[in-house]
Every structure is written in structure tokens, then in C-alpha cells.
Amino acid sequence: GKFRLGYAHFAKKEFEAALPFFNAIKNQKHQYTATSNYYAAYIEFKNQDYDNALSDLSKIENDETYKNLASIMIASIYYKKKEDDKVIAYCEKIIGDKKTTGYDELYLLLAESYDNKKNYKNALGNYAKYTNDFKTKPSSEVQYRIGYSAYKMKDYETAIKNFKNVASVKD
Question: Could you tell me the end-to-end alpha-carbon distance of the chain, in angstroms, rounded to an integer?
Fold first, then answer.
């Protein structure tokens, strides 16, 4: 059927060819409904068609199989659309509900959104959860923002440590 044709194109990274098949069946009730919505959203996300991706992801954000991926993608879309208030509200709700995993990515999006709003205290707290709780090695760009947030909060030890790490990275 249409799902198999769509998936065949998707597996070969022929996303433009796959999307019409997933779109044709994603609103019908069948065993591939959630999967069709996910694949359509994935392709739309890659194409920066964020409104359609959000629409498809909202249909699967409570689906047992896709809720983790959907939550991270929804938060990422809000972030890419520079909707920091939505990122903050959404991530805090998801983390508070404890209904998903992949918090490291959500904490990073939260920290970055607080950083964009110049709320350095909350940015620093979420950066700490991102790096400490998940033993994640941040990129030099993130380390710079951690250092800057720490500097703004007069936490000079953290600021120096992060700025030193950025300075020692070879371009």
C-alpha cells in the first residue's frame, strides 16, 4: 500500500517522493497512522515546513512509540522559530510531566531560550542540568554561552572554566 511505497522512498532518502504517500494516509485510522505522521513530520522538519511538522507532531506527542522524538522536535521547532516563551513553557511542561526521556536536549533548548531572553540565572541552571546530569560534553558555542551566563551571574569560576575550554579548542 501507500505506507510501504512511502517507506521505500524514505529508506532511500527520497524524501520528496515519500511525503505524498505519508500525507495521503496519515489522517486515516490504521496501524501506520502514528508512523505516517512521524515520517511526514520528519520530512517537513527537514524542509523547514515547521507549521505542518507541528501539526503532525501534535497528533503523536502522546503516542508511546513517538512521544520522546515528538517532544524534542516540537521544542526544536519553537526554538527554530525563535519562540522562546513557547520553548520555555513547553519544555517545562514536558519535563514536569516526566512523560518522556531525552531531557538533555530539552534542558539545552530551555537554557538557550532563557539565554536569549537574558534570564541568565535560569539559563545557567538548565545548562548545568544539561552538562552535569547527562554528562554531556557541550559544543564550544554552548560552552561560550554557559561562560557568558555564568559571568553575568558573577559566577566567575564557572565562567573562566568554560571560556578556557572554548579558547583551547582548535578551529
Answer: 49
